């Protein structure tokens, strides 16, 4: 019976390279020509499992994305999509389409795309319109989610609630007691059910601090609305929080402008903390404290998971939670008796 060593000798590569190709391990780059020669050698030597495994080069993959404003220029989604496309390229593939689902009428166009492109699998990035999502699950061979709450499909995610809680706890340790919140809802859900809000709420409750509802703002993930509602809150409320936690960096940056226009100094008068660690957050004035989310890796892992399910290596849906990291910069202030987890990037 042929062994990996026999294939490696025939092709002239290492045993580890043969093993990675036969397992569809994409953690290291192997050229498509080398992959082809290894598989041909496995067929020739009648290596066990060579015929039963689907070749990655035959997969046709699509991507469906939630519909934030300007999704292709959105710094959070753009990096996730970059990770997806990078892993696809490493496998010698390209995405058949990237489609944004915003409203129920988009379903017909999505159905047409799936049928025309004959896709084997779809990566769904965040929650989309429910009818479209249910149709995908029923009509596409394999589905992998990025930051989906669905336990019936494999998902790559980060702990949104834990990330928010750690940021707010840092602000509390820094001496802040009046902390506002900016965020939005998941698809059509009440915004106070969103996990980053729940993390904020948990940190405040556990510290015995009151939440001022006039400073809990549903900005609907809209940058301009984050600016406008924060500006209005400054004008309408006599009490101003000493810190604001925003569920995304873009929301935080917009609110920082509203605070600066009000004549407030950051962080002396009001501190800010965001989530995502988008590239521009390091270059705001002052630089924005944030939670680093490994966006590129999330996209890359989603592709690898999808290949594994298409190859029938797994049957039960797994949930891969990637770690987040606290990034402390000047927007949240630095107190001498508070440990700075990381300063800068």
Automatic annotation (TrEMBL):
<dbReference type="GO" id="GO:0003700">
    <property type="term" value="F:DNA-binding transcription factor activity"/>
</dbReference>
<dbReference type="Pfam" id="PF13377">
    <property type="entry name" value="Peripla_BP_3"/>
</dbReference>
<feature type="domain" description="HTH lacI-type">
    <location>
        <begin position="2"/>
        <end position="55"/>
    </location>
</feature>
<protein>
    <submittedName>
        <fullName>LacI family transcriptional regulator</fullName>
    </submittedName>
</protein>
<dbReference type="Pfam" id="PF00356">
    <property type="entry name" value="LacI"/>
</dbReference>
<dbReference type="GO" id="GO:0000976">
    <property type="term" value="F:transcription cis-regulatory region binding"/>
</dbReference>
<dbReference type="InterPro" id="IPR046335">
    <property type="entry name" value="LacI/GalR-like_sensor"/>
</dbReference>
<dbReference type="InterPro" id="IPR010982">
    <property type="entry name" value="Lambda_DNA-bd_dom_sf"/>
</dbReference>
<keyword id="KW-0238">DNA-binding</keyword>
<keyword id="KW-0804">Transcription</keyword>
<dbReference type="InterPro" id="IPR000843">
    <property type="entry name" value="HTH_LacI"/>
</dbReference>
<keyword id="KW-0805">Transcription regulation</keyword>
<dbReference type="InterPro" id="IPR028082">
    <property type="entry name" value="Peripla_BP_I"/>
</dbReference>
């Amino acid at each position: 019976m042929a062994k990996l060593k026999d294939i490696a000798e025939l092709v002239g590569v290492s045993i580890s390279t043969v093993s990675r190709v036969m397992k569809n391990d994409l953690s290291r780059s192997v050229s498509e020509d080398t992959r082809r020669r290894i598989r041909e050698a496995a067929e020739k030597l009648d290596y066990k499992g060579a015929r039963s495994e689907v070749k990655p080069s035959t997969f046709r993959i699509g991507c469906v994305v939630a519909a934030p404003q300007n999704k292709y220029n959105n710094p959070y989604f753009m990096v996730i999509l970059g990770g997806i496309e990078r892993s696809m390229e490493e496998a010698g593939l390209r995405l058949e389409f990237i489609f944004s689902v915003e409203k129920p009428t988009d379903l017909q166009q999505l159905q047409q795309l799936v049928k025309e492109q004959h896709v084997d699998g779809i990566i769904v990035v965040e929650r989309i319109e429910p009818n479209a999502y249910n149709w995908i699950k029923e009509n596409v061979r394999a589905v992998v989610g990025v930051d989906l709450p669905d336990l019936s499909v494999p998902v790559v995610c980060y702990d949104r609630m834990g990330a928010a809680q750690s940021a707010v706890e840092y602000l509390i340790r820094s001496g802040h007691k009046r902390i506002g919140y900016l965020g939005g809802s998941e698809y059509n859900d009440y915004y106070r059910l969103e996990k980053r809000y729940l993390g904020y709420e948990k940190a405040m409750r556990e510290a015995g601090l009151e939440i001022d509802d006039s400073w809990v703002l549903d900005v609907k993930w809209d940058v301009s609305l984050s600016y406008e509602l924060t500006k209005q809150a400054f004008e309408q409320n006599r009490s101003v929080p000493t810190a604001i936690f925003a569920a995304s960096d873009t929301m935080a940056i917009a609110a920082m402008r509203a605070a600066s226009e009000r004549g407030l100094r950051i962080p002396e008068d009001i501190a800010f903390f965001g989530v995502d660690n988008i590239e521009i957050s390091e270059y705001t004035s002052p630089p924005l404290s944030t939670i680093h989310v490994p966006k590129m890796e999330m996209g890359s892992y989603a592709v690898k998971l999808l290949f594994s399910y298409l190859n029938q290596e797994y049957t039960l849906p797994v949930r891969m939670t990637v770690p987040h990291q606290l990034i402390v910069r000047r927007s949240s202030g630095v107190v001498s008796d508070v440990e700075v987890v990381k300063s800068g990037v």
